[in-house]
Structure to design on (984 residues):
């Protein structure tokens, strides 16, 4: 039966390509004469109110309204996207009344999740929505595929907006002058970055880009995963078959995917060869199993046919009739060398080809890690892959480079002044966290105010491994079996079983291959000795079900009320895990054959239910399908490396509540230190959120223009834990430390000047504070840490300084190494809610007595005790503050509990009060302090006014210790160099 109302609304909305228009007027023009009632809005309202799931009219309006809600550029509304105000403007333009608005709002709520954050140079607008709609063959196919896969309208519209934001910042492929844009897209680990660059590739090809080179990882396995994804979702059946009859077995010889579980059903179909349907074909220069090779066809494949031979390929008459070429290439020196060699043979045509280079995991292998200090004068030395990418960009002057990564720190440390490198000079886009994604925030309670309490996320998903818990490996294996059984139970009770096809556990303890083998053997022994078929094993699983998985089960998903209901599925889960003879697969190695294991092929194997043991190869770029239980104890000191090891992040439909992370909380590091890996992940999450917050802060346009370009962004990269650097040292040659945030942390500068004039100047700067000291000393008490009743008492001269006065002192002091103190000063000057949360400072000058004590007046201040400290061979002091003086200072600052035995510390304590320990220091190399005192005074040019201080801890959780870095621009003469002291 014909749905006349649906057909009419489809025609009307199709006529609103540029935005909403008066619906009734358009409907009257487009309606059929025999169906005049369809133009009545009351019929539409009634249909929406009673519509059930799957109603096509509601779905049509869901897609349309969501698209208008999310549109970043809307000349028909001044309201920002994703707001009720934007929706209200839409209704006004449509001419809809209150009743219909209410019905539509209930059926299609405004999607208010944040969109992509964009930092960009000004660019010439060429990729309008009109152009995108006119040239959209491959994007339309991709969009339809995503909807068939179950993507929501909001998710599709968000991807549309994010990919459009990338493509519009590329160079117009038809422009006369060649220009290659450089950009970076930042996503989350395993969050759908591939979906975004597939969308970007579809739109770019539709718009006219005719050569796409995807740099797809450093292993064939990863390259093949990317190739398959593009073939399945973008290139499609017809371009893969290239005219071959799918029913003729002989014709299919040599065509890949014939052994793929998903061929052809899940591969996009264009309804025929695109070139016969008014579009153009895509020719693949690589396949699932074959990387780029030096083939004769590789050269001929880039010989584009021109319709108008007197015009360049990028001329519209030629460009939009030419086939596109796509290759997915491994980031491997020999493979890229073959590609570059072939491209050089093509000659002048290269300058005419609009090309797009997508660099997946662009912070891996692509970044130049050579030390600038070792370069020859005027010569940039490059690492192999970085040099080859630069060569590609040089050979293809119309090539656009877009890097994709979830850990962008290495990329933003690339020198902006190196025009041949991959710094994202044109745009930097941060993708929003997708709906349904499990990321760091789902495993850490970042907003809790009581750090001593266990938050909901931690309680639900985290199982800590500590000294008093034992290694918990058997429990983790039990959890893996139990969650497999729970998946089968849910599938039997109506939950779609697609996400349950694979069920995996990841064990990541070490980077050493020899340890993987022994660990795999141990796991296999534990598994086979676990007595899963005996009453002992069932009792253990039953107890774990009750104590853990039933407690934290999703109420919206079926979960058995008793273990007896689950028991049959435990038997089946164990069968699946044991299939092939072993429950364990070791994933490591230096050669590709280490990955050619049938049980590891998630595409061609019906069910992978295994425990994966490995190291580095189980981290970056490797998608562990069905991952439910992770056992993680591997240490690293680079934040980006650690984040990439978070394979437990991703989409977990139907089993989100079953995900468990067994993680080391007391892992040994060094001879006596232990580290908390859970805390480490939380710290790098804060680093990541700080990065994104900085982008958001500067993304808003001012008078329609960008506030800053990517090269001008203020400090982006933070470091919240001292032992985890943002990236590897060889990726941070271009990083400058600009701020150290230290609430509740000791700051003890030790690089003071030696010049007499500077020392006198510093004493004069401190003089007003010295003159305000109370003449009556306060007596502070240092208690024994072992609580045995021992204590030390010391007198001190004290006063309280306002923050502005303290800041004025610090800003005006001279330093032996100003570059070392500048990051601390930047923090003291930061008035934001994440900056220095200190209102005033308790100034404490400890006084000593005894035979060796020397007291002297300094300028017009009262007599003060002098302190001896010796500079080391580098000209700096090893320490300033006395250990016995720190305890009371920590009580004043609120980082140590108050004690009735230390009453003066209690008296000085206030919320948001910092503390300064100040010492008039005499270097013994200048002489004996007593000998330097004349008539009760000492020359201020002989005294170092040295301080150690603790900024206050804020009343909110926003002020957290960290350091921040910015990128050095070699093209800026005023840009400092890391490690080079600033000289006066």
């Amino acid at each position: 039966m014909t749905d006349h109302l649906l057909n009419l609304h489809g025609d009307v909305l199709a006529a609103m390509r540029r935005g909403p228009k008066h619906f009734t007027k358009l409907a009257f023009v487009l309606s059929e004469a025999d169906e005049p009632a369809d133009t009545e809005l009351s019929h539409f309202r009634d249909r929406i109110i009673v519509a059930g799931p799957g109603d096509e009219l509601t779905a049509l309006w869901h897609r349309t309204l969501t698209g208008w809600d999310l549109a970043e550029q809307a000349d028909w509304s001044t309201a920002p996207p994703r707001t009720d105000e934007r929706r209200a403007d839409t209704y006004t333009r449509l001419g809809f009344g209150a009743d219909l608005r209410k019905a539509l709002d209930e059926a299609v709520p405004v999607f208010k999740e944040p969109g992509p954050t964009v930092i960009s140079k000004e660019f010439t607008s060429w990729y309008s929505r009109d152009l995108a709609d006119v040239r959209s063959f491959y994007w339309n196919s991709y969009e339809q595929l995503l909807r068939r896969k179950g993507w929501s309208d909001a998710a599709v519209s968000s991807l549309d907006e994010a990919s459009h934001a990338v493509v519009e910042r590329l160079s117009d492929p038809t422009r006369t002058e060649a220009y290659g844009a450089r950009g970076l897209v930042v996503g989350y680990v395993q969050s759908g970055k591939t979906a975004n660059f597939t969308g970007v590739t579809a739109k770019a090809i539709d718009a006219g880009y005719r050569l796409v080179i995807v740099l797809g990882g450093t292993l064939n396995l990863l390259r093949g995963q990317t190739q398959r994804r593009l073939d399945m979702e973008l290139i499609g059946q017809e371009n893969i078959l290239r005219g071959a009859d799918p029913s003729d077995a002989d014709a299919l010889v040599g065509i890949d995917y014939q052994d793929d579980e998903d061929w052809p059903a899940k591969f996009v179909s264009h309804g025929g060869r695109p070139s016969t349907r008014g579009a153009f074909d895509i020719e693949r220069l690589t396949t699932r199993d074959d990387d780029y090779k030096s083939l004769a066809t590789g050269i001929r494949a880039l010989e584009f046919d021109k319709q108008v031979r007197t015009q360049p390929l990028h001329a519209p008459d030629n460009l939009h009739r030419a086939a596109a070429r796509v290759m997915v290439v491994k980031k491997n020196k020999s493979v890229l060398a073959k590609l570059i060699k072939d491209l050089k043979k093509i000659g002048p045509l290269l300058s005419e080809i609009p090309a797009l280079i997508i660099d997946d995991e662009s912070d891996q292998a692509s970044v130049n890690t050579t030390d600038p200090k070792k370069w020859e004068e005027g010569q940039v030395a490059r690492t192999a892959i970085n040099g080859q990418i630069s060569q590609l960009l040089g050979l293809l002057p119309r090539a656009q480079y877009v890097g994709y990564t979830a850990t962008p720190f290495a990329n933003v440390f690339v020198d902006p002044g190196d025009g041949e490198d991959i710094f994202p000079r044109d745009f930097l886009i941060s993708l929003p966290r997708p709906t349904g994604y499990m990321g760091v925030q789902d495993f850490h309670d970042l907003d809790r105010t009581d750090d001593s309490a266990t938050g909901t996320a931690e309680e639900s998903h985290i199982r800590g491994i500590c000294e008093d818990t034992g290694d918990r490996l058997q429990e983790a294996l039990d959890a893996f079996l139990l969650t497999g059984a729970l998946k089968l139970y849910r599938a039997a009770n109506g939950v779609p079983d697609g996400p349950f096809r694979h069920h995996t556990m990841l064990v990541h303890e070490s980077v050493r291959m020899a340890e993987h083998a022994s660990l795999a053997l141990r796991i296999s022994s534990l598994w086979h000795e676990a007595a899963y078929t005996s009453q002992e094993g069932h009792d253990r699983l039953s107890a774990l079900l009750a104590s853990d998985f039933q407690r934290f089960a999703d109420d919206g998903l079926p979960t058995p009320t008793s273990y007896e209901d689950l028991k049959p599925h435990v038997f089946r889960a164990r069968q699946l895990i044991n299939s092939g003879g072993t429950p364990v697969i070791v994933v490591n190695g230096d050669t590709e054959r280490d990955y050619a294991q049938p049980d590891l092929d998630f595409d061609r194997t019906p069910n992978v239910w295994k425990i994966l043991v490995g190291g580095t190869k189980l981290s970056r770029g490797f998608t562990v399908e069905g991952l439910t239980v992770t056992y993680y104890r591997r240490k690293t000191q680079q934040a980006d490396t650690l984040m990439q090891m978070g394979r437990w992040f991703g989409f977990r439909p139907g089993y989100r509540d079953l995900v468990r992370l067994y993680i080391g909380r007391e892992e040994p590091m060094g001879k006596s230190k232990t580290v908390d890996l859970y805390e480490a992940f939380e710290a790098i999450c804060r680093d990541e959120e700080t990065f994104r917050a900085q982008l958001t802060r500067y993304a808003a346009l001012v008078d329609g223009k960008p506030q800053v370009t990517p090269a001008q962004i203020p400090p982006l990269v933070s470091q919240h834990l001292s032992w985890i650097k943002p990236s590897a040292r060889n990726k941070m040659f271009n990083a400058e430390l600009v701020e150290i945030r230290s609430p509740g942390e000791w700051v003890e500068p030790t690089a003071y000047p030696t010049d007499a004039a500077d020392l006198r100047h510093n004493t004069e700067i401190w003089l007003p504070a010295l003159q305000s000291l109370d003449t009556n000393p306060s007596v502070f008490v240092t208690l024994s840490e072992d609580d045995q009743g021992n204590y030390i008492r010391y007198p001190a001269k004290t006063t309280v300084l306002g923050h502005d006065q303290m800041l004025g002192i610090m800003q005006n002091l001279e330093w032996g190494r100003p570059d070392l103190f500048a990051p601390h000063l930047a923090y003291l000057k930061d008035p934001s809610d994440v900056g220095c949360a200190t209102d005033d400072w308790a100034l404490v000058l400890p006084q000593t007595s005894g035979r060796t004590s020397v007291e002297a007046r300094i300028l017009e201040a009262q007599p003060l005790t002098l302190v001896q400290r010796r500079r080391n061979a580098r000209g700096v002091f090893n320490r300033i503050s006395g250990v016995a003086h720190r305890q009371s200072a920590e009580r004043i600052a609120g980082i140590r509990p108050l004690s009735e035995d230390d009453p003066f510390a209690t008296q000085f304590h206030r919320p948001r009060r910092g503390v300064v320990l100040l010492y008039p220091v005499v270097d013994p190399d200048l002489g004996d302090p007593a000998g330097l005192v004349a008539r009760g005074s000492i020359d201020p040019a002989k005294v170092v006014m040295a301080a150690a201080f603790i900024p206050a801890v804020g009343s909110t959780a926003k002020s957290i210790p960290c350091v921040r870095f910015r990128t050095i621009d070699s093209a800026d003469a005023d840009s400092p160099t890391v490690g080079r002291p600033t000289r006066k």
